[in-house]
Write a structure and sequence with these properties.
The chain has 413 residues and is α/β, with parallel strands linked by helices. The protein has helices spanning 7-16, 19-23, 104-126, 149-156, 205-209, 226-229, 240-244, 273-278, 285-294, 305-317, 330-338, 369-372, 379-389, 394-400; strands at residues 49-51, 67-69, 188-193, 213-217, 235-239, 260-264, 300-302, 342-348, 402-406. α7 links the parallel β5 and β6 (260-264). The radius of gyration is 20 Å and the shape is globular.
């Protein structure tokens, strides 16, 4: 059962589409008491706002981002979709969307939307769930808990494996590892592009392409969606199902060429690398070797599965309820991988914006009931964790769909 909905389906779906879960939701919007808990962070817009109706897309400059607030970006142009079969409430993307942060009504809408989103995350965190602990996770609450979310995630040290890591320093698989690291960059501007359906109509393409490093997930396309999602891809994070299964065409598809790739497979919690090699969740090693053989100049890495579980542990450390004992999403793993390379990381539609429309992904029209059960990954915990690190203001976050994580030296860890 678990295997059926395992990584591929879930990562692709859950990561994108928390949306439908919200759709099922409640009129009771309460501002939770710890909504503003993070007041020590100075939150600001990542854009500069000006009105210019002839500009087609939102833009940012290198350090002083600018944005053009386009009238055509109005809610009525966005797809109106009925929510999933499993949800009783149709979600209406026109209800909370607005384009002018200087208007009181827009501030109000943003506030109400934010409260609704956060209360939904928190509701899901408190929900009980059944699980069989397939990954043999065990956990002890740490005694010390004073670290910020950012410092805690840094300490998790999400990383790719190196040919120097035993047993890869002598085994056959290790001989296929690239010599270069996944990222040569330090101090880069970075963007993480979720595959969410609510990217549709965002017009964030130029904004995204202005980043030095642009990370996408699995087989998420850019062709045909450039205005909203950009055309640049520097790195893809893919799960082991995408590496393994024929339909994803790892060895031949264009979107897997001329980009760095970080593939992950969770193995089991606390498993040694030797054990992992013998029993990965999906046997990604064969296609990894084939790809590296076919494209010797490629920059294809494997994520250290132990570091995936360290990220899970960081998540659980910072979450006050018990989270699913399943690996984090590709989005959260990608975020961890980027930390050493970036001066800031913009996560696009990782936190759902007011464009939330019920679509699973921006690139298909799937309204899948599986999307409604976004509970395979510890998703709500991840999103609340990311919001704690957010330095972007509320309009940027909940209307534009951009969360910024600043990694400058004064982050204090
Ligand atoms: C608006 O954008 C267009 C196209 O980029 C540009 O040519 C024009 O100068 C801009 N107008 C203002 C007032 O910034
Ligand atoms: C803002 O929202 C509150 C309640 O949610 C409402 O009473 C108030 O009239 C709203 N203000 C504006 C300007 O829409
Ligand atoms: C990082 O880049 C920014 C912007 O280019 C620059 O101002 C800053 O000095 C750089 N920091 C380091 C440590 O190189």
């Amino acid at each position: 059962m678990l295997r059926d909905v395992s990584l591929g389906k879930c990562c692709m779906i859950c990561f994108a589409v928390f949306c439908l879960v919200f759709a099922a939701q409640l009129e009771a919007v309460t501002l939770c008491s710890d909504v503003g808990k993070y007041h020590h962070i100075d939150r600001r817009s990542v854009f500069q706002f000006k009105h210019n109706a002839s500009e087609r897309q939102l833009r940012m400059g290198a350090e002083k981002p600018s944005i053009v607030n386009d009238e055509r970006d109005a809610p009525r142009t966005r797809p109106q979709l009925r929510s999933s079969k499993n949800s009783n409430v149709a979600f209406d993307p026109t209800k909370y969307a607005c384009g002018d942060p200087s208007m009181t009504e827009c501030v109000n809408k943003t506030q109400v939307f934010k409260a609704r989103v956060l209360s939904e995350f928190r509701r899901i965190l408190k929900e009980s769930f059944e699980e069989n602990n397939y990954y043999r996770v065990h956990y002890n609450k740490p005694i010390f808990d004073g670290e910020s979310e950012l410092c805690r995630l840094k300490r998790a040290d999400v990383r790719t494996l190196s040919w120097r890591d035993p047993p890869f320093n002598w085994n056959e698989i290790g001989s296929y590892f690239p010599l270069n690291p996944l990222f040569k960059e330090r101090n880069a501007s970075c963007a993480v592009i979720a595959s969410a359906g609510s990217l549709k109509g965002s017009r964030l393409g130029d904004f995204i392409d202005d980043h030095d490093v642009v990370m996408r997930f699995n087989h998420a396309p850019t062709k045909g969606f450039e205005v909203d999602v950009g055309s640049k891809t520097t790195v893809r994070v893919v799960n082991s199902q995408v590496v393994t299964k024929k339909e994803f065409k790892l060895l031949t598809a264009k979107h897997f060429r001329h980009v760095s790739i970080a593939a992950w497979d969770p193995g089991k919690f606390d498993q040694s690398l030797e054990e992992w090699i013998k029993s990965p969740d999906f046997n990604l090693f064969e296609n990894f070797k084939k790809y590296r053989e076919k494209y010797p100049g490629s920059n294809f890495h494997l994520v250290d599965p132990r570091s995936i579980w360290r990220a899970w542990t960081a998540l659980q450390d910072k979450t006050h309820t018990k989270i699913m004992r399943n690996p984090p999403t590709s989005g959260f793993i990608g975020l961890g991988l980027l930390i050493p390379a970036c001066r800031y990381i913009d996560m696009i539609e990782y936190i759902p914006s007011s464009r939330m429309n019920g679509l699973c992904h921006y690139y298909d029209s799937e309204i899948n009931s599986a999307c409604t059960f976004g509970s395979w990954h510890p998703l709500a915990a991840e999103k609340l964790y990311v919001l704690q690190m957010n330095t972007a203001d509320e309009f940027t976050t909940f209307q534009r769909g951009v969360v910024r994580i600043s990694l400058d030296s004064n982050s204090g860890c």
